[in-house]
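Predict the 3D structure for this chain.
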Amino acid sequence: MIIDHRTYEIKAGCLPKFLELYGTHGYPVQLKHLGQPVGYYVSGDIGALNQVVHLWQYESLADREAKRGRMQADPDWQAYLAKSAEAGYTVRQENKILRAAPFWQPK
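Done. Predicted structure below.
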């Protein structure tokens, strides 16, 4: 099992607009192809600001590639990406693949 950990930095003042756009047009498509995320969070007023962090679980890198490939081929996802690019809310994106430590077993 792996976790795809994604962090997006959003332009100051644009977080509510980003969340509205994503929640309406992006999230439903991701749910369709990726299933429920492990978590979806926004940063508070301590530490780095204007960040969105989401975590997605996959059985393997091959599972991730297959699911994300189907999502990328979905016209609704492509429409969301175009709207997101046009809005220009995202400043930076970071992606990590996490694996469980050998002594910890997820539920």
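Helices lie at 15-34, 61-73, 75-87.
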